[in-house]
Design brief:
Length: about 575
Amino acid sequence: MTRTFPEEIRTRLQHALGAADVDLPSRFVPAVSPTNDPRFGDYQSNAAMILGKQLGTNPRALAEKILAVFDPEKLCDPPEIAGPGFINFRIQSALLNERLFGLLTHDSLGVSTVADPQTIVIDFSAPNVAKPMHVGHIRSTFIGDALARIARFLGHTVISDNHIGDWGKQFGMILYGWRNFLDESAFEKDPIGALVALYKRVNSLAKEDQAVNTACKEELVKLQQGDPGNIEIWERVIVLTRSGLDKIYGPLDIHFDHWLGESAYNARLAALTEELMESGTATESEGAICVFFPDDPALADKPPCIVRKQDGGFGYAATDIATIEHRVHEFKADEIWYVVGAPQQLHFDQVFAVARKRGLDSALVFIPFGSILGDDRKMLRTREGEPPQLGDLIEEAVERARQIVEEKNPGLPSDEKDTIAKTVGIGAVKYAELSQHRMTDYIFSWDKMLSMQGNTAPYLQNAYVRIRSIFRKLEGEADFGERAELEDENEKKLALKLLQFSEAVPEVLVDHRPNSLANYLYELADTFHGFYESCPVLRAEGVTRDTRLTLSEITSRVLCQGLDLLGIEVPDRM
Ligand code: ARG
């Protein structure tokens, strides 16, 4: 396992701090980060400034003391002190040469697997049966899938679980609608659409008419108590939904190891509620079974967590507590990640708190995100004022990409145009999501996401395509020679950037943010651009040419692998 440059620098700094007899605060870890300006070297540390402040010493003097014993051997040039006490490091050219060349034969392009692999259950997408998907499900689907891919690549055991809402309040409505206004022919044509229409019709009726509302609730309770007629309808609805969803996930190349929806835990809920009562975790309050959190400052003055409602139906919290149990006991999850919109924060805080009271001590991680906005800066809606459906968005993206391909490359065979349109269109929508900080509300813009310029999927895909075309011109096996020898500043910059793939991938999991990888790939494509403008590849000779071919080859591999980790494919031509 090769250590990344920041890891290596950090270790040596720690040694130096020890050797220089600096009086360290407990658990002090020196921070090392890439510099933004090459004049200050490749990496910098503010350790002397942080320590100077804490110890009341002059930071520059402290930096000198550290550097007097710092060992740069075979790693970097002698570090320099800058400004108020930054320590700047420049990686040695010989090491860059060696590591760059090594990437050619390294399957995971320099990325090491983690030292302590975990079993991680990732809960994402999770639409609600019969209810229209909303933008929250779209964001969750893309972020969750990217996190699953990245965690797997880093060596974790990932179990993806689509916890669909197949047992909620809406089923009362679907059952009522099914019994009262079922239109079989609509179901034949478009099952998901017909279900949504049925749900909407009953939902608005129930809002106006208390009797319908009550009838729906009764249907739900009957279902939850195992009424055979309702169970039969319910089972049909689930099958219809599942096949509809598979059609959407398939082209997106998104797969789930499990589809354990809310219903999967139904049989457990009554006993779970009993246990919660017996252990004193839950109490009865106004006819409902609730958990209060008087000792938890964050939750004490919030509404309680409702395990069983007054009408006897079990709440969303009950299924989620049972779900955690299952994941911890059956899946042996060390961690469970929930990629769910920010409005569900309180729900998860409560459910996690109950799980901890029950001694379920796996790490429970809530990974929230913001909204997708339309041009008007309000929640994204279709022209009809509805939430956009993931399937429709993808269809439109592919159509738009098809038009662009048609304009740019009319001579390509038609089926190749179709394939490119799929790769570019789907890539564009995914990347528009994944290049954003997940907490930002971003504006959905077709023109922006499909542009060949800027931080977009088509720009990155095109960078890949252009590099592959260099190799096509070579006709035959590319020869990368025996070694790399970086001379030009642009070559060095690109080599360093490529070696930083090993830092960019693990970085995503620090805060579960795929956008840090997206931004890395964008910077890489830009750095390649700068290199390509000033360093001719095919016209160069000898070791210079070998080195430049190596740089180009690795760039295309990193782009391809990096995009794959975001769930995005690359075309051969576009
Ligand atoms: N179906 C829920 C919704 O649409 C999301 C489920 C998230 N996962 C969970 N275990 N609660 O809001």
